[in-house]
UniProtKB/TrEMBL annotation:
The chain crosses the membrane at residues 12-29, 41-59, 89-111, 118-137, 157-178, 210-231, 263-280, 286-304. It is a multi-pass membrane protein. The keyword Cell membrane applies. GO terms for molecular function: transmembrane transporter activity. Keywords: Cell inner membrane, Cell membrane, Membrane, Transmembrane, Transmembrane helix, Transport. It comes from Clostridium uliginosum. InterPro entries: ABC_transp_permease (IPR001851). Pfam families: BPD_transp_2. This is Ribose transport system permease protein. Its main location: membrane. The keyword Membrane applies. It is found in: Cell membrane. One of its GO terms (cellular component) is plasma membrane.
Length: 310
């Protein structure tokens, strides 16, 4: 009975943690609860949240994707180049997403068919596509983006920024796929026990490949949003974003071993990171100390998650 209670409580620990964090920061700095600041937090969180949604699919299978930051960078750079060339927003978005699909396919095929560890494959692709971005941009930002493309990252529908609405749609789609489709069930089965999943007739190689494609698409969409929002594409864009995405997934309660977790937990994890970053900035905490604090939060989340699963 006690273990059941603990398990039920563990489902909500991330939400409780977010609630406590918001209260603590609002006490320390009243500016935190202003409408403009909350809108800013949600907008800032949207990019990491979208990447983290894709990362959730990967980690649920027991994998990892370190290439999302580089995928974001090359997708954003290509989109910016197309906008400066002919201003075709639709083409820019399609090309960016296509790049995400290609990166995901490369990662997925090497991992599933090549039987190479996900860490090694995505570490290599992270380096390669970061290099490709530098070559494509000559190491310089692609700026001067104007017009309707900028609306993707800056437009508001009522009081809600468009990136927040896009994130909400992504969450709804991901939730449906993971909970209501055969693909979602197969994904959890693969993460729980790959051998058993294979013996039960699941095409594990196909599932592995598809989750990296999902991750690539999510990273590419984030690349479009962040490029649109700031009006330029930097070859350094997305650097370190893979760590924030992984942190959001882990803090949200998804097991790094795979087979257990949820997209709703991931969103809460992304909000915790976003609120923490925003609160520390409002409190004028040094960026160096912010890294230390964020690392401690991630470590505590992993330890609590491990304890909750015993």
């Amino acid at each position: 009975m006690q273990s059941i209670r603990n398990k039920n409580l563990s489902k909500y620990k991330s939400l409780i943690g977010l609630f406590i964090l918001c209260i603590a920061i609002s006490i320390l700095t009243p500016r935190f609860l202003s409408v403009s600041n909350i809108t800013n937090v949600l907008t800032q969180v949207s990019v990491n949240a979208i990447i983290a949604i894709g990362m959730t699919f990967v980690i649920l299978t027991g994998g990892i994707d370190l290439s999302v930051g580089s995928t974001l960078a090359i997708s954003g750079a290509l989109a910016a180049s197309i906008i400066n060339s002919n201003g075709n927003v639709f083409l820019a978005v399609i090309v960016a997403v296509a790049v995400g699909i290609v990166v995901g396919l490369i990662n997925g095929m090497l991992i599933s068919k090549g039987k190479i560890q996900a860490f090694i494959v995505t570490l290599a692709s992270m380096t390669i596509f970061r290099g490709v971005t530098y070559v494509f941009t000559n190491g310089n930002p692609i700026s001067g983006l104007t017009g309707s493309f900028n609306s993707i990252g800056n437009l508001k529908v009522g009081i809600l920024p468009l990136p927040v609405i896009i994130t909400a749609l992504m969450v709804a789609i991901a939730y449906y796929v993971l909970t209501q489709t055969r693909f979602g069930r197969y994904l959890y089965a693969l993460g729980g026990n790959e051998d058993s999943a294979r013996l039960s007739g699941i095409n594990t190689d196909k599932i592995k490949t598809l989750v990296y494609v999902v991750s690539g698409i999510a990273a590419a969409l984030s690349g479009v949003i962040i490029t649109s929002r700031i009006g330029s594409a930097s070859p350094n864009a997305g650097s370190g974003f893979e760590l924030d995405a992984i942190a959001a997934v882990v803090i949200g309660g998804t097991s790094l071993a795979g087979g257990e977790g949820s997209v709703m937990g991931t969103i809460i994890g992304a909000l915790i990171i976003g609120v923490l970053n925003n609160g520390l900035n409002l409190l004028n905490v040094s960026p160096f100390y912010q890294l230390i604090i964020k690392g401690i939060v991630i470590l505590v989340a992993v330890l609590l998650d491990k304890k909750g699963r015993k």
